[in-house]
Amino acid sequence: MQPLSLMGNHQLWQLQSALGSQTESIRDRVLHVEPEWVQLNSDADLWLDVAVFEQTYNLVQKVPGQELETATAQHLQNVVQLYQGPLLEGWYQDWCLLERERLQNIYLAMLDKLMSYCEAHHDYETSLLYGMRIMYYDRARERTHQRLMRLNYLLGNRAEALRQYERCATALDEELGIKPSKSTTALYKRIQADQLDEPEPLMALRETDPTIKAVTTPSLLEVLGNLAHLQRSLTDIQDQLQQSIQQVELALVIADAADAARGSQFPQKTLR
């Protein structure tokens, strides 16, 4: 939905006229207009590119790119063509900024998957093209720089792989004020020494989909953190048990006191 305050009456009339909304029944109108809002009529017979975009992402969201079926990958290749640029570029309302970022993140995540799929099938040139499209929207995406370095090297273009590192260093400095990570620098040095071997397809660098957590061997710090969290949980459970025991003990004391009180109200008679 969009607030009517962002759209003038003349603009709204032009839009309704272009869509034929004024002559159709309310149920069949493309636009659903309320006093404060205007939105697309979800019941209308129409094809919405954003809906197809989101449905496809939901379909592949939890599937690693290198494990995509051929038909699914082909469908994904077609769907990413729907993205023609940032949503309503030039608009700076809060709702628009959030939606623009969300759709762009979905687009980049799908490109990541296609990079992994192509690399797993040794189609390095196409994977490279998808990576370059990612760079167009996020030039400081370091993991993608790493993948482009590898892909260029695997295509026999070591000089371009080394230049990609320089572009990475420049982008990180200009965008974030940081230097390339140790892993990026180590990759650069292996390429420089011509010591980078072609990996197995499934060992390719993982895509950076923000909705998928990579499965890695935990570090000692992570193990220590997990143990500390477990210790805190056990302490909380112990405290809860202690409180429960005290409550039961208190209930028993109260019950005993009540029994004693009832006994004092009805003293036993003794035979004389």
Which terms would index this structure?
272 residues; flat; mainly alpha; 3-stranded antiparallel beta sheet; Serine Threonine Protein Phosphatase 5, Tetratricopeptide repeat
- Termini separation comes to 94 Å
Portion of residues in helices? 55-70%
Low-confidence stretches: 200-218, 266-272
Gyration radius (Cα, Å) is 32 Å
The number of domains is 3
User: In percent, how much strand structure appears in the residues?
Assistant: under 5%
CATH superfamily of the largest domain: Tetratricopeptide repeat domain
| CATH class division of the largest domain | Mainly Alpha
Structural class: mainly alpha
Q: Write the element-wise H/E pattern from the N-terminal end onward.
A: EHEEHHHHHHHH
**Given the structure, what is the number of helices?**
9
Proper CATH architecture of the largest domain: Alpha Horseshoe
What overall geometry do the principal axes of the alpha carbons give? flat
Strand order of the largest sheet: 1-3-2
- On the 0 to 100 scale, the average pLDDT is 79
Major sheet: 3 strands, antiparallel
> Using DSSP, what is the number of strands?
3
Q: What oligomeric state is this? A: single chain
Detail the topology: elements first, then pairings.
Elements (H helix, E strand, L loop, with lengths): L1 E2 L5 H11 L11 E3 L3 E4 L8 H12 L9 H10 L14 H27 L3 H14 L4 H13 L3 H19 L5 H11 L27 H46 L7
